[in-house]
Design goal:
Strand content: 25-35%
Number of helices: 9
Shape: flat
Number of strands: 15
Radius of gyration: 25 Å
Order of helices and strands: HHEEHHEEEEHHEHEHHEEEEEEE
Strand order of the largest sheet: 7-15-11-8-10-9
Largest sheet: 6 strands, mixed
Helix content: 25-40%
Mean pLDDT: 75
Low-confidence stretches: 1-18, 31-62
């Protein structure tokens, strides 16, 4: 069965109730479908495209679409940063009530014993870290003129600003939270050798009972400025830029590597707490989410017929193993 989508122009502007959300949803569905996402909308949000652009689940589907659209817009540019932490949705799935306690395992040392020997038990126990999610909000205004004149693309641009604000805050909290909790620090500036030394510190880390953690550093978050400084060093130019050249290939000096010494390189303008952060992304931290990005709308005092869209997300970064993180500083 084929679905036909026609451009949407609001016949009458509604300033209250579900009218605003419905009109905004129609504009978004029209704009998204023109970008080839019609199938995604039908499957995920139950939207049936007809001449009148109706929905099978009423105004609630528009709200869902609006929230999900903003969420996808918010995270699309920080996927690399989100990949540096484990995502924990226990709070979102009602696995907790505001505060969440994460256990930190302490290992027992395995020993070889003779037949009939008595086993000596190690009692390191289990410690934990307790975190409480915090909500982050960003507001943006949708004016009467935008809706009245059917300014679909500009409405999406305005909503994108709200999503960008959330993504900047989320990325900033993650990278600087990791930096502030680092168990190791390598000083002396952004150098080729310091990256190697930072990785060695993480992978040599041991528990108090001398049992190795077994961390494997696999990523380096680095400021844009520090990355530029590193790329200008002789070691980097002579080694990293040629690391991907195979025998017989034409040498391209401009070919750039985004992996060095097994570390995925993640340049970002949001890191301010260090020049770089080297870490084991599988062990270091969890991003505990209490919600995906949610949207709310209401009137704006003193601005008749204009509406405010508020984007909200609740989360907290929980660093589990500080020894899985090493910063690089001056």
């Amino acid at each position: 069965m084929k679905f036909k989508v026609t451009g949407y122009t609001a016949p009458k502007f509604s300033n209250s109730g579900t009218g605003f959300t419905e009109q905004l949803g129609l504009m978004l569905s029209d704009a998204l479908n023109t970008k080839g996402q019609g199938k995604m909308l039908r499957e995920q949000f139950g939207i049936t495209f007809k001449e009148d652009v109706t929905t099978t689940t009423g105004a609630g589907a528009y709200t869902t679409m609006l929230s999900t659209t903003l969420y996808e817009a918010a995270i699309q540019n920080i996927q690399d940063i989100l990949g540096t932490v484990n995502i924990n949705d226990d709070l979102k799935n009602k696995g907790g009530f505001g505060a969440y306690q994460i256990p930190i395992l302490e290992p027992t040392v395995a020993v070889e014993v003779a037949e009939g020997a008595v086993i000596s038990y190690f009692d390191e126990g289990v410690t934990s870290v307790t975190v409480t999610a915090r909500k982050v909000v960003a507001g943006t205004a949708i004016t009467w003129e935008m809706l009245k004149r059917g300014m679909t693309d500009f409405v999406k641009y305005v909503l994108q600003n709200a999503a960008d604000a959330i993504s900047r805050k989320l990325a900033t909290d993650i990278v600087n939270g990791l930096a502030s909790a680092a168990g190791f620090d390598e000083t002396g500036g952004m150098t080729y050798d310091n990256i190697i030394d930072a990785k060695v510190k993480i992978q040599s880390a041991k528990y108090d009972n001398t049992t190795p953690y077994g961390f494997m550093a696999d990523a380096m978050i680095i400021t844009e400025t520090a990355y530029g400084t590193l790329q200008k060093t002789t070691e980097w130019k002579n080694t990293v830029f040629f690391a991907n050249i195979r025998p017989g290939d034409k040498v391209e000096v401009a070919r750039q590597s985004f992996i060095f010494n097994g570390l995925r390189i993640i340049p970002t303008p949001f890191l301010t707490g260090a020049l770089a952060v080297v870490l084991d992304t599988r062990k270091a931290a969890m991003l505990v989410r209490e919600s995906d990005l949610e949207t709310f709308e209401g009137s704006i005092n003193g601005r008749p017929y204009d509406r405010e869209v508020v984007a909200l997300m609740s989360y907290v970064l929980a660093v589990i193993y500080t020894s899985a993180i090493c910063t690089i500083n001056t």
